[in-house]
Design a protein that fits this description.
- The complex is a heterodimer of chains A (420) and B (166).
- By secondary structure, chain A is an alpha/beta fold.
- Chain A has eight helices and 19 strands.
- Chain A folds into three domains: 108 residues, Immunoglobulin-like, CATH 2.60.40; 42 residues, no CATH class; 193 residues, Rossmann fold (3-Layer(aba) Sandwich).
- Chain B has two domains: 134 residues; 28 residues.
- Chain B contains six helices and one strand; from the N terminus they run ααααβαα.
- Chain B is globular, with a radius of gyration of 18 Å.
- Chain B starts with a helix and ends with a helix.
- The chains are: A alpha/beta (420), B mainly alpha (166).
- At the A-B interface, α1, α2, β4 and β6 of A face α3, α4, β1, α5 and α6 of B.
- β6 of chain A pairs parallel with β1 of chain B.
Chain lengths: 420, 166
């Protein structure tokens, strides 16, 4: 019941009493519409019966994409005015459609409301809680109900552009797209050797054979797959408003997982932080979905517990795997774990998600000193990694992920040349 | 905003009519009406829902004062005054609805048409009541019937309201 009913009843009563007191029929006329509206509204009052169905145009979308939501309202008993509010997570922006909206629903009527949403940020959402408020003709009664018809919507992080992937130092035994050190079937030339019975004629190097007077055979490098483990540091993040170091880290993880899986590599995923989460390395498109679903569950959970790399299950980090660590390098535990991992002989690459652009401008002498100390500390950490033979690529606002990976490739080429 | 302005205009029309037509004590009529209008404006500006009916009642009171100081003749403009007060009340309560939702065009049109129809019905019913009231001769019996009808009307509304709120 709204205050309007009380007001109308009161106004009618006052006017009627005044009419009696002053003996003026005009005041009965003034009272009449209020009394009639209240009486008719009360006589016609009934409880609306509504239901809703919610449908999404897609269950999975990429960051920045749009998704259509269809809300179908079904009224067994309708109402003169129905306010409909579709509750939306903050990260889903209403692109097209009125929300909230006021419609009329007759008895037995079915109305469809469509909304177009833009997925602003990655995440796993549930869309479809509808708040409904009904009003009768005179606005004397208001009823509210919540129709919870939520359906899942997964918004995956958008992809970064990467031209060349990092080549692992070691390959595995299955066929793939990486040129292995071992000799075998492949197209990359490796060496020449004298012919032995059983060699295929098509492998004979006729020019070398003619020069040496005996048959010589071309040897090739085998093409094998590799094990790649993407290790996401979730101990801590730097955040400023809606921007966080976790977002680019997840975008990079998704991009790298998709690209390595396309190269027929086995890809695993480890979230290393307050909550430990892992996926064993395997191949195929299903693994990509598993990884991105695991990524959506990733969150920064504050924890003071010291956690080292031995807590990660052994099978998650297969020997000779290329480990790509995505970290903002702001927690000592992740630094220690990465050095430990390198000490155990893993082919480790650190992609540093720079948090510096998220920091406020230093103000005052103390602020500038703190800023300098922070930068020096980060350089010292990088230095420790490089001394341990871990290439570090800094990925920030000024550089692209592709450029950061190229930097690592160049570092590894230089290291190989130096060791040779 | 538009509905609030329209409600104030309708109320102002009632006050202006009462003040201009009043032959005695126009200052009192005008003051009561102005106080009512100011209270309505305050309630609409601050969205103070419970204050709005008091403003409306004061505007109605200014008309009642005008009728009280008037000579015996029936005011033939009473149906129009009642319609204006009803429109002011409907538009005022509409503007006090705290709803951020945007109405569909059809819903908006139906609501405006409903208020207009309410005003016309008010005028028609009011005219009928006036015709009946002026045609009837006075007497203790009729007066008792009037009192009983008024009490019954208020009691019926109160009864229906209590039943609806359960």
């Amino acid at each position: 019941m709204t205050p309007k009913l009380g007001a109308y009843a009161g106004l009618a009563a006052l006017a009627l009493l005044a009419a009696l007191a002053t003996r003026r029929p005009e005041l009965v006329v003034v009272a009449a519409p209020f009394a009639l509206a209240a009486a008719i509204g009360l006589l016609l009052a009934r409880r609306p019966s509504l239901d809703a169905e919610v449908e999404l145009s897609a269950e999975r979308k990429l960051e920045g994409n749009e998704v259509d939501v269809r809300v179908a309202l079904v009224a067994a008993v309708g109402a003169e005015r129905v306010e409909v509010l579709l509750q939306l997570p903050r990260q889903l922006f209403m692109q097209d459609g009125k929300n909230p909206v006021q419609v009329r629903l007759a008895d037995g009527e079915r109305r469809e409301l469509t909304y177009r949403l833009r997925c602003e940020r990655w995440g796993a959402y549930r869309v479809g809680r509808v708040y409904v408020r009904t009003h009768d003709w005179f606005g004397l009664f208001r009823r509210e109900l919540v129709l919870d018809r939520r359906v899942p919507l997964k918004v995956y992080p958008s992809e970064e552009s990467v031209r060349n992937l990092l080549r692992p130092l070691e390959t595995q035994v299955f066929a793939g797209n990486h040129v292995a050190r071992q000799k075998g079937e492949g197209i990359e030339f490796a060496d020449l050797r004298p012919f032995v019975p059983g060699d295929r004629i098509r492998h004979v190097n006729w020019r070398a054979s003619a020069r040496r007077g005996e048959l010589w055979i071309n040897e090739h490098h085998a093409e094998r797959n590799a094990d790649v483990v993407i290790l996401l540091d979730s101990f801590a993040e730097a955040r400023r408003g809606e921007r966080s170091t976790l977002d680019p880290a997840l975008r990079a993880a998704g991009t790298l997982a998709a690209r390595y899986l396309r190269e027929k590599d086995r890809v695993g995923f480890v979230t290393f932080g307050g909550i430990l989460n892992w996926l064993l390395p395997t191949t195929g498109a299903v693994q990509l979905y598993r990884i991105v679903d695991a990524m959506l569950d990733t969150q920064i959970v504050l924890s003071y517990a010291w956690r080292d790399i031995s807590t990660v299950p052994r099978r998650t980090l297969p020997p000779q795997a290329l480990v790509l660590a995505l970290t903002p390098l702001i927690d000592d535990r992740s630094e220690a774990a990465l050095l430990d991992l390198r000490g155990r002989g893993f082919d480790l690459v650190v992609i540093e998600i720079s948090p510096l652009s998220l920091l406020p401008e230093p103000s005052g002498e103390a602020g500038e000193l703190a800023d300098r100390l922070l930068r020096l500390h980060r350089e010292a950490v990088r230095g420790r990694f490089e001394r341990a033979g871990i290439p570090v690529a800094v990925w920030g606002d000024e550089t692209s992920l592709a450029a950061a990976l190229e930097e690592v490739s160049a570092y590894r080429r230089r290291a190989r040349a130096a060791s040779a | 905003m538009t509905t609030a302005a329209a409600a104030l205009i309708a109320a102002a029309a009632v006050v202006a009519y009462s003040d201009v037509s009043s032959e005695r004590l126009p200052a009192v009529v005008g003051s009561v009406g102005a106080a009512g209008g100011a209270l309505m404006a305050f309630a609409l500006a601050t969205r103070w829902r419970s204050v709005f009916p008091f403003g409306l009642a004061l505007v109605g009171a200014s008309y009642a004062v005008f009728l009280g100081v008037r000579n015996g003749a029936v005011d033939e403009w009473a149906p129009a005054v009642a319609a204006a007060l009803f429109v002011a009340a409907e538009l005022g309560f509409w503007s006090l609805e705290r709803s951020p939702s945007r109405s569909e065009g059809a819903v908006l049109l139906r609501r405006i048409a409903g208020i207009a129809a309410g005003a016309i019905v008010t005028a028609l019913v009011g005219s009928l009541v006036l015709v009946v009231a002026t045609g009837a001769s006075g007497g203790v019996g009729l007066e008792a019937a009037g009192v009983a009808a008024a009490v019954l009307a208020v009691a019926a509304i109160a009864r229906l309201a209590s039943r609806a709120s359960v």
